[in-house]
Amino acid sequence: MTPLLAAGSTALLHNALLVGAILFALGLVGILARRNLIVMFLSAELMLQGISVSLVAWSRYHGDWGGHVLVIFVLTVAACEAAVALVFVLQAFARTGRLDAAAWQALREATLPRAVDHALPASDAVPPRWPRLARAGVEPPTDEDASLEREHV
Amino acid sequence: MPPLSPATLLVLVPLLPLAGAVLTLVLGRVLGSRAHLPAIAGIAAAAAVAVMLLLGTSSQVGSAHDPHAEPVRPVEMITTLWQWASVQDAYVPPASSAAAIPGTAVGGAGSAARAFTIPVALRLDPLTATLLAIITCIGLVVAIYSVGYMHHDPGYPRFFAVFSLFVFSMSMLVAASNFLVVYVFWEAVGACSYLLIGFWFTRPEAARAAKKAFLVNRVGDFGLAIATFLLWMTYGTLDFHDTLSADGTILPGILGQTRLADAGGIVGGAVGTAICLCLLLAACGKSAQLPLHVWLPDAMEGPTPASALIHAATMVTAGIYLVARSAPLFMACPDALAAVSIVGATTALVAGLIATVQNDLKRVLAYSTISQLGYMFASLGTGTLLGFTAAIFHLVTHAFFKALLFLGAGSVMHSMGNVIDMRRFGGLRRIMPITAATFLAGALALAGVAPFSGFFSKDEILASLHGKGWPNAHGEHHDAAPASHARRALSPGEARGEGATAFRVASLTRSPAAAPTAVLDTPQTFRVLFWMALVTAGLTAFYTFRAVFMTFTGPTRVPEEAGHHAHESPPVMALPLLILAVPSAVAGWWLFSSQWLAHFLTATPSFSAPAVTATAVPHAFHMDLAIQGTLAAAIGIVIAAIGHLGRRSDGPQMERFLGPLQTFFANRCYIDQLYAGLVVRPLEGLAIMAALFDRFVIDGLVNGIARLPAALGGVVRRLQAGLLQRYALAGVMGVLAIVLVLAWRLRG
Fold first, then answer.
1. Are residues B682 and B613 in the same domain?
2. Which domain holds residue B212?
3. Residue-wise pLDDT tens digits, B62-105
4. Which of these three, B332, B366, B388, is where a domain ends?
5. Is the domain of B563 the same as that of B674?
6. B724 contacts A109? CB cut-off 8 A
7. Are residues B22 and B152 in the same domain?
8. Strand, helix or coil at B123?
9. Chain B contact present for A83, CB below 8 A
């Protein structure tokens, strides 16, 4: 009976793999079930970390540093990927004014019907309320083009 | 510099015009208005070389006036340029094939397999030398004339390039020594003709005429192709000349001296007749004979110099050349030979009748060309040495005077602002004296008036027909090989046939090999043909002088298209007229009195076959025939003078007395309409059917196949829902599937 944290411990491996699998399954469900782009992105990260956990577990079990190295590498890549993905999310939000992935369903084949289960929230119709500040100082020159560019924000 | 060998000279004749054509084509835009220089230089050099060859060949043949001369030996020179194709063991002659000749090495070998070789070989013999000289000399004169006529035409370089190319093709056609090479250049001259008829292709009539000429010629070319196939099947070679095989045996060519010397060397019977009729069909197409003559009158849409060279003087004589070259083949098939005569004489008569009512000067000349070619065919079909030489004699004189007449017509057209309808001008002799005088010389030659060249050649043709129709009338016996002199012409009364019985009965047999029962080849046939030819002679004189009187006599009238510059043509156009007027006037007398051409042609291998030489008759001037011919011409001229001399050409014409016949002839005997109804319309219907089939069935199939990927795509397209979650789900499913498969594979 080896100690719980000793290398080659089957119990540790089982537990760690279980945690990894749970993380992965949670992420998978999240990415399939949620429509919020940021949550979907988080779910994808969760799946990534589930895999990382199982990598570490196997590495520990075999007494090999390869898995650890790979995990460090995954973390690095995930950080870069987060930067890129968040830019995409931001841009998508800038285009539609929403974080809903279903807002992009216009990209479907033209012959297919809309596939949302219910109508989109009516919040579209309500103009966003921006905080108002008291006027002070000299009024800056307004750039009309700039306001036109970001109609949703 | 060493003198050039005859072989080199022979190659130079076609090569120089080809070089001229290529140069004109390449440098045409650079040369601009000097684009005629390469072409004329090439044709002029070729003409000089051709005349040298003619004189050289003539010196080999020897003089005609040597009374103790041996029978003329065939003169032939072959120069093989390269082997076009060579297939080993392509032909195994059947045991009883004519490809094997009894008594030669090949005959003994029996069924030795033989290679299929197409040597590009040029030949030089009297017939070729004569035609080469005619083609290049007339070509040169017409090319010089074109410098003036085509002046300021936007297609000036193109004209001279095609013109030069034509001279090349035609030289190759008459110099080639192989039926397949002949076929190639047969097509090449047709293509040049097409290009020149459609020279002004922006005019719909010209484009249509070019298309018509090309398509009608296809029918004839089909005949030549079939004849070539049959010749290959029958003889196992396509060469004219004998060749030496690798093992030293002689492979006899179709018209080679080995085969010609052998009495049974040429196949007669059904196969031979089929070959000859196919060759006749080909000749009919190119030489515009009766069933296929419809293209030539329309070909007058081309520039007049092209009409003069191609559609009057040279290309249309390719059919005459082909039949003359294949004379031994025809000699073995008397019925095919008679068919040649019948076609020729009928064409001569019908074309002559149509020509009498044409009002377009060029069309009169075109129908006259058809008619004169018919004359030559009638003469060829007699199958006698006199007939063959007379046909070539007429070919030569006709080339001169018909080129002259066409160039004269072109001169008129040039001056009259491209108006060619004779009713719209008249009395032009006061405006253009040189053209009028030279045209008159040509017309006298064409009509067959005594001292002019056409008289003598026409007389020989009539004599050859007469000799076949009344075999005994002139005391000629057809089976005598040595030429016994001293048979004199009879008085006209005896010539009619009443006195014939007083002379010994001559055998009608032409050669021992060719004595099958002839259906068409009877004296009665040729009597009819003789009378047809005689009537044609009268018609020829009539329509020729009708044209002369309508154009050059009467009150001077000029169409408004001519403007103020109705004038004599410039010297560059008048000079060729004067040059051509000389041989038109005197060539016939010289060639007839010296018998130079007839004697010269006898040395052609095709005319030296025993079957041909057996028909030789002593040369004689038949006063009775000359009187008949002259009488016919005189009657024609007198009637033309009564109707047209000094009258306004736009007034009511004398031909109106013909009544409905005039309409019939003016509509060209409705032959075009007949073809339109029988051939063109059904073919157009077929074409419409084919177009509909193509549009609906073929296109439907193609479009159906094109719709298949679209249908497949329609199924897959439903997956493209635009929902990220679905795409992710599809990815997960895919990974799961892969995992399952892997698990299944690795379970053991």
1. no
2. 1-62+72-332
3. 765 555 555 677 888 888 888 888 887 777 766 555 555 544 44
4. B332
5. no
6. no
7. yes
8. strand
9. no
Is the pLDDT assigned to residue B497 strictly greater than 50? Answer: no
How far A117 CA lies from chain B's nearest CA (Å)?
12
SS3 for B741? Answer: helix
Instruction: Say whether A111 and B722 touch across the interface (CB within 8 A).
Output: no
pLDDT band at B513 (very low <50, low <70, confident <90, very high): very low
Domain boundary among B316, B332, B348: B332
CB B118 within 8 A of CB B81: no
Q: Which two tokens stand for residue A118?
A: 């219910």
pLDDT > 70? residue B477: no
Q: Are residues B346 and B368 in the same domain?
A: yes
Most confident option among B109-113, B364-368, B652-656 = B364-368
User: Rounded to an integer, what distance in angstroms lies between the CA atom of residue B353 and that of residue B213?
Assistant: 22
Tell me the H-state helices in B553-617.
571-594, 596-602, 610-613
- Which amino acid type is present at position B600? F
Q: Which residue has the tokens 């076009």?
A: B84
| Enclosing H/E stretch for B117 | strand B114-124
Chain B CB contacts of A40 under 8 Å are 724
**CATH class of the region A1-100:** mainly alpha
Residue B720 has its nearest CB partner, among A102, A104, A109, at A109
- pLDDT at residue number B118: 85
Residues contacting residue B387 through CB under 8 Å, at least 6 positions apart: B379, B380, B381, B461, B464, B465, B468
Q: B284 and B203 in one domain?
A: yes
The C-alpha atoms of residue B308 and residue B138 are separated, in whole angstroms, by: 9
Give tens-digit pLDDT for A100-147: 888 888 788 887 877 765 565 555 566 777 788 777 888 777 766 655
Query: Which of A28, A35, A105 comes nearest B722 by C-beta?
Result: A105
Q: How far apart are CA A77 and CA B181, in angstroms?
A: 79
Which residues lie closer than 8 Å to B288 by C-beta, 6 or more apart?
A: B295, B296, B316, B369, B370, B373
Question: Does residue B304 lie in a domain region?
Answer: yes
Q: Would you say residue B438 has pLDDT above 70?
A: yes
Of the listed ranges B26-35, B286-295, B657-666, B694-703, the least confidently predicted one is B657-666
Q: List, in order, residues 6 or more apart from B69 with CB less than 8 Å away.
A: B62, B63
Chain B residue set in contact with A, beta carbons under 8 Å: 717-718, 720-726, 728-729, 732
Q: Are residues B708 and B733 in the same domain?
A: no
| Residues B347, B210 share a domain | no
Confirm whether B33 is domain-assigned: yes
Same domain, B345 and B241: no
Distances (CA, A) of B252 to B97, B103, B265, B328: 13, 12, 9, 14
Please name which of B430, B360, B377, B441 lies closest in space to residue B404, comparing C-alpha atoms. Answer: B441
Count structural domains, chain B: 4
User: Per the domain annotation, does B546 fall within a domain?
Assistant: yes
Which of A33, A102, A108 lies nearest to residue B720, judging by beta carbons? A108
In this prediction the ipTM stands at: 0.74
pLDDT given at position B104: 45
- Closest chain B residue to A115, measured at CA: B721
Examine residue B477 and state whether it is found in any structural domain, yes or no.
no
